[in-house]
Amino acid sequence: MGRGLHAKAVTIADAAHFAENWSDRPILDRTGLTGLYEVDTDGWAPMEVRPPDSGTPPSAEAPAMAVPTRPTLFLIMDRLGLKLEPAKGPVDVYVIERVERPQGN
């Protein structure tokens, strides 16, 4: 779920990077805009609805996110004069090959 974008001076690239944390896919800034912008948006509905874990009570935010009139990330960006478009492009991918516990604990 998105909690909204709230900033006094943010680049479009930074806003896209933040919104990506609440999206189900990478968001690339292809606007070419380099200035700083003030933004204050509503929160948005999740891009992908996740079923609750069985046996786990719903979170306190679950009822708020279930509101069908909650805007989507696409609508929030449109209100900012930006457009999200599905496209293919290069993205960084990190592969974790091994994890070890620190010794001495």
Summarize the structure in short.
This protein is an alpha+beta fold and 105 residues long. It contains three helices and two strands, in the order βαβαα.
Explain the overall architecture.
The protein has one domain (1-46, 61-105). The chain contains three helices and two strands, in the order βαβαα. The chain has helices at residues 12-20, 62-65, 73-79, and strands at residues 6-10, 37-40. It starts with 5 loop residues before the first strand and ends in a 26-residue tail after the last helix. The relative contact order is 0.21. The model has no long low-confidence stretch (mean pLDDT 81).
Percent range of helical residues: 10-25%
Backbone CA Rg: 17 Å
Output the strand order for the largest sheet.
1-2
Query: Topology as H/E string?
Result: EHEHH
Cα distance, first to last residue?
36 Å
Uncertain residue ranges:
none
Number of helical segments?
Answer: 3
Please supply descriptive tags for the structure shown above.
2 strands, 105 residues, alpha+beta, extended
Question: SSE layout and pairings?
Answer:
Layout: E1 6-10, H1 12-20, E2 37-40, H2 62-65, H3 73-79
Antiparallel strand pairs: 1-2
